[in-house]
Amino acid sequence: MIKRAAAALVILCALAPLARADWKQELNALLGRDPDYRAARDFLAAEAGKLEGEDKQTAAFILPFLAARSGDARAERDLVAEYFETYHDNDPLFGFLDESALRGLLGFWASWKRLYPLVYDLNLLSYARTPATGLPVSVDIGLELLNEAFYRISLGPYILEGGHWREGFHILTIPLSGLFERSDTYEFTLDLKAGDIICRKPLRLQVDIADVAPAPASSPRDVFSASPAVPADPIREGEISVYIDGKLVLRSRKITTRPESFTFPLGGPLMQGQKPYMPPPKNDPMASGVSILDALALAYKTIKDLVAKRPPKPSPPSYQKVSALSFAYTRTASGGQAVSARATLSLPTTRAVILESESPI
After folding, report:
1. Among residues 54, 82, 115, which one ends one of the domains?
2. Looking at the structure, do residues 158 and 13 belong to the same domain, yes or no?
3. Which residue has the higher pLDDT, 251 or 9?
4. pLDDT for position 271
């Protein structure tokens, strides 16, 4: 009995790849010479939930194309956005399709990949210059953009920034004024427009505030102790008089010693090319010259020194991509007591959606 069960298990494992390949054959049959896109879409949508790994990605890649050929524009936009948000612009294996279906599929995705403003690899940016304590006034978010697009970032009805982005890496500065009152999640809206495609990606900034301990009380200072100050300059001149019953009994005066004046005799008239109190030159400098090679060497050395002393170009600010940022600070609790607190910023994962073409941006 055990041997029969083991043999059946081996047979099922051997037939599993064939069973997984059946959906591709049936899909090809529906997309043959006389394609039935609606039936193919219904079939693949039902099979997609059973697939895993590369097959699941392949089904997600084909479904938007079938929705477009079926005339369902809303489903096409939703499925395209879902694929980009899940797999970015990576292509699966779809070589099993017939030539006619394959040609239409490639043309469909070529137009979407040329325009879709995919935002990915969002991270908080940490700079070496960021202070370890105190609350920041803003935070930088780094992101990658697949295609150039017009963008707008807003918080509720307030537009914070807008403009045009080229493809590549960009830094978005988010103001944090008033966001550290309590633990909460604040949703900023990033709208992007490329051609007729309008995408909306929520940027959720999560703020977590935790009280660590009561703030350390400042040590009491003796009111009679001398306050630290810059040492005064010593007294150079002054006079002290002591009177007893209106009668002068003592007087002391301090006078700074001044250097005595002296005279420095100068010699007679100077001769040409002669410095004071220096022996006259043996050769007349006006009668001698400098060779051209020496002049060129001196000019080369001067230019080389100037280039070497030129200050280096300022390097771009270095940053590190992080998933969270923490800041220690002191806040006033509900009872009026000062407590040490720590605020943590993070970016929960969100997915973009494609809006209707008539949506304003």
Report:
1. 115
2. no
3. 251
4. 56
